Amino acid sequence: MGSFTGASTGASSAAPTGSSAAGASGSGSGSPAAGASPSASGSASRSASGRSPGRSAGRAPGAPGNAPARAPGTSPGTAPEGERAVTVRVPAKVNVQLAVGGVRPDGFHDLANVFLAVGLYDHVTAAPAGPGAGCAVTCEGPGSDRVPLDRGNLAVRAAELLAAHHGRAPDVRLHIAKDIPVAGGMAGGSADAAGALLACDALWGTATPRHVLLELCARLGSDVPFSLVGGAALGRGRGELLTEVPVSGTFHWVFALADGGLSTPEVYRACDRRRGAAPVPEPEPDPALLAALREGDPRALAARLANDLQPAALALRPSLADTLAAGRAAGALAGLVSGSGPTCAFLAADADAAAALAASLEASGTCRAARATTAPASGAVLR
């Protein structure tokens, strides 16, 4: 396994997107951050990285370079008004292992967090805005009515952070086309932040080095660096210290989407309450799980899926137990709550099994919708 250059830098000043404490949002990240709204986990914006079209901003072994689907109503390099614009496609994630340590003095939790990027995508577009306009954001897609259109949106803060880094005004119009569930435990807000960084960097011609982009990602939130690089990775610290994880082949997943969301800080607090004063072991990655990824073995991976936040998520949303049971009854190799939930993730043996599982889950009435897709997916990609 190899480290992603720059992913560990700038962590001390990072404002986390997900885990315990006041106002943080996002899933699978280490702990609290004041001022981060739970609904910010659904924000996004179309953007670009300064790389040539179709190249990923970092690809782990086994991450496919599928041609990205266009966001509704747009074409590459074209804003709705016909002005020059740039669009970035950014993936959702699933945590195949989320081991949560005790609360640190800074309020975060240390994690052993094994991420897989999956083929559900937001599209973030950055278009020019006049001098002094600042950053404005619009959003479309499922759950977009719950996405903040101000600084509560992590994509807006990403644009402002990049502008401040380069000493320029954050004049830009961001548009987010959502397909990643909002507040669903799949890092939608983090994906949008990574997309906004890349899009604005390309739009403004600031040519930010990749290691600096990763540092800025870590300052925005715990899951944002992984949204940039995609593929598969082990996240340590609060999730922002990334090591590349080798993957062979393709894994087939079905995601059962729920109505509404869950607040990541609330889920972490519930996890802490359930543990009480008992000592919490240091989180460590599961060697058998890493071997299953490396060998491309879905049955071996299914046997090792683990999420320390799942009991807390089930306590807050008991109906998720019915969703998990429906998936198992329909032939899933295994299922778990994705991150802090409420999305449930099911591993299937192959593409046909995934399609049948998605149909069965939708017919069960235990979820709003079910989506079959694959992993690992590439990271943030300039359209």
From TrEMBL:
Pfam families membership: GHMP_kinases_C, GHMP_kinases_N
Active-site residue list: 93, 223
Record pathway: Isoprenoid biosynthesis; isopentenyl diphosphate biosynthesis via DXP pathway; isopentenyl diphosphate from 1-deoxy-D-xylulose 5-phosphate: step 3/6
Statement: the UniProt record of this protein carries the keyword Kinase: yes
Chain spans, region Disordered: 1-86
SUPFAM superfamilies xref list: GHMP Kinase, C-terminal domain (SSF55060), Ribosomal protein S5 domain 2-like (SSF54211)
EC number: 2.7.1.148
GO terms, biological process: isopentenyl diphosphate biosynthetic process, methylerythritol 4-phosphate pathway; terpenoid biosynthetic process
Known function: Catalyzes the phosphorylation of the position 2 hydroxy group of 4-diphosphocytidyl-2C-methyl-D-erythritol.
Protein's name in the database: 4-diphosphocytidyl-2-C-methyl-D-erythritol kinase
Provenance organism: Streptomyces hoynatensis
Gene that this polypeptide is encoded by: ispE
